[in-house]
Amino acid sequence: MIYLPYCPKCGVEADEGENYCPACGQRLSEGGDRRVRRLSDRRAVDHLSLGFNLAMARPMVFAPALLGGIIFIVIDNFGGGTGPSSSTPILFFVSIVSIVGSIITFVLNFATIDMARDAYVDEPLDLRRSFNYALSRIGTFFIASIVAALLSLTIVLIPMAILMVVIIVMDETGIMDAISKAFGVFTKDLGDVIIVFVAAIVGNTLLGWAPLVGGLLIACYGVVLDLAFIDIYHHYKKEYLAF
Q1: Containing domain of residue 17, as a range?
Q2: What is the pLDDT of residues 126-172, one digit of tens each?
Q3: What residues form DSSP beta bridges with 233?
Q4: How many domains does the chain have?
């Protein structure tokens, strides 16, 4: 038998040992080993608001995203300055710089999620520590990126791919475990996940029109979205309880 301290019907907290909800009469003891969802009034706008407010309160969280955006812009402009008439040594040098810059940017993308996690749990923000963490798991993150790209081939699974990457960092877990958890979040909080995903598409589209700094604005907005998805996952774990 499992005992439910929160009523699965109305959400009212019950005293230990009560078999029925004092508010609505719902049975609180169930047979078997299963998970029960506690009701929550938190919605997609709350997740997004928290992400924005937390990022504004701790602006250091933008550091890896901005650094990655700047490196990407430099590489893009640097590579665009070469042409067919460029000498072989110059082309080789540009290729090496582009490869190194791309690897650093890739690591910074995951360092951004790690720093967002630290901000969410009110830990000190350390760019070097987050970068080293992402670098230490670059193999896992590389494979996760391939899996995420495959999931993204089916447009409806793009939010699940995002959640998978967030969970890999949040729980410091492997890819298969993250996929399983992401599927659980995706099915239980589908509405909130889809709304945040739509907000991501709309926001990135609008910010992309900004001249010169559009890429950096998108990078900063991505931090807010990371925090929103982290909040969704955190509340999923807190509300979807196992007894």
Answers
A1: 1-39
A2: 999 999 999 999 999 999 999 999 999 988 899 999 999 999 999 99
A3: none
A4: 2
- For residue 3 the two structure tokens come to 């005992």
Domain shared by 49 and 124, yes or no: yes
Cα–Cα dist 53/17, whole Å: 40
* Whether residues 56 and 13 fall in one domain: no
Task: Check: CB of residue 116 under 8 Å from CB of residue 226.
Answer: yes
User: Does 2 lie in the same domain as 121?
Assistant: no
pLDDT tens string 81-121: 555 555 677 777 778 888 888 999 999 999 999 999 999 99
In the chain, how many H helices and how many E strands?
A: 9, 4
Task: Identify the CA nearest to 26 among candidates 44, 3, 53, 45.
Answer: 3
The total of other beta-carbon atoms located within 10 Å of residue 149's CB is 10
Query: Do residue 110 and residue 173 come from a single domain?
Result: yes
Q: Based on the fold, state whether residues 110 and 31 are members of the same structural domain.
A: no
* Same-domain pairing of 55 and 32: no
Q: What is the tens place of the pLDDT at every residue in 166-221?
A: 999 999 999 999 999 999 999 888 899 999 999 999 999 999 898 888 889 999 99
| Residue corresponding to tokens 């896992």 | 140
